[in-house]
Design a protein that fits this description.
This protein is of the alpha/beta class and 469 residues long. The chain is 31% helix and 23% strand. It contains 13 helices and 16 strands. The chain has helices at 73-83, 103-116, 136-141, 164-177, 188-200, 207-211, 215-232, 244-255, 273-279, 292-303, 338-351, 357-370, 457-460, and strands at residues 5-15, 18-28, 31-37, 43-56, 58-63, 86-91, 120-125, 146-150, 180-184, 235-238, 259-262, 264-265, 310-311, 388-397, 418-428, 431-434. The chain is globular.
Amino acid sequence: MTPPFDLILRGTLVLPDALLPGGYVAIRGQTIAAIGQGEPPPALKTVDHGTKLILPGLVDGHMHTGSALGWPGIEGATMTAAAGGVTTVCDMPYDVPRATTDASIFREKVEQVERLSHVDMALYATIKKTGGVGAIPELAAAGASSFKLSTYEYDAVRFPRIDHPTMVEAFREIAKTGLMVAVHNEDEELVVRLTAEARAAGRTDPIMHCRTRPPLAETMADLEIFEIGLEVGAHVHIAHSSVARGFDIAEMFRHQGGLASGEACIQYLCMTEEDMVRLEGFGKCNPPFRTAEEVERMWAALAAGKIAYVSTDHAPWPRQKKIYEGDIFAVGAGLTGMQSFAPLMFTLLADRGLPPSLMARLCSERPARFHGLFPKKGAIAIGSDADFCVLEEGQFVYDAANIRDREDARWSPWHGVPMRARVAATWLRGQQIWDGEQVLAKPGTGSFVPRQHRLSALDDAAPGGAAHS
């Protein structure tokens, strides 16, 4: 008789609410067909991961492949995702030389994903600075997982600030699609003035990156975007809150009937202003690192269920763009983070005595929910894609030289940091794409994953709701 399953993986299964030692997942084709403990059923192939942890493949809800190189950056960024146990990435739309602002560009990007990616990819969409609102329905129909807008302007064409009247109009149209709109939340007027004053005073040292983008710049932006969302009925999401008050504000708007949420990038759970001084340009990201006291408040927000999910905001700038030469404002903003994501998150949780099931929830299930990819992605469940991140516990030191990307992207703010786990294997739709040493996937192994449904994640997985209890 033909064995009923193609593949069995054995190990300690990590679910969002439990650990199953001696567990197994049975795979037929590209999807999970059975889950259990003890003696597994027969299969054509069995891979025994022993006591290693088998988590659902991580879903990075916020990363950039194209900010430095444009679409060719997909290849290297998704290779490092595979090595980091990240099986699905949600890619930002601000690519060089043009952002994903209409359905035609979106379809062109999908073609590049199918040709270059090592892991599966969902795609954000955005709008032009002016005259772009009409493209929203077609972008949603093309399969965008979410939209992204900004209250701060990095580039008038590629990464513009959207003014308030246009944002109201855009949020209203996005609300009709049922998709989430994430917003880069920094008040431009405040940041521009503080930066100009710092330059005039000759203060361009690393700590001034933090001082010129204070928490107030975030919370001012949070209030305006949530007010607009409440007015028009849009699900508005803080793309990255470095301060716990951002999650308090989102909660306040939810209590008033709004669809409001926010994510924490992993750096805001561990990095401080002291790290900014130490790392110089290699620690620069927007928003910046905060105080050690703020990091503790972030963990309190996480424990209270206020954080929607945890992401990386991976942005692999060439090393030369990150070197500080006396002017911190001239350095590119963004960190590498996908290959360190799983071991770092496991380490941060373990250091606080928290279970890895929180990682399955915050780094897999919930980003998949918020981007309309669940339960296809982000779950160890029958019918879900057979995507897994296998972690080996132990004492390891993170080495940026092992980053699986182009040579000038092999840098990390976590270089030399002790980690309590490493990614021993990654599986994508039943195929092993990382063996702990080498990326086994080829460009084109990954596929574009359109949004699967338009149900709001806040309907059944609200922070503090049943799915988080």
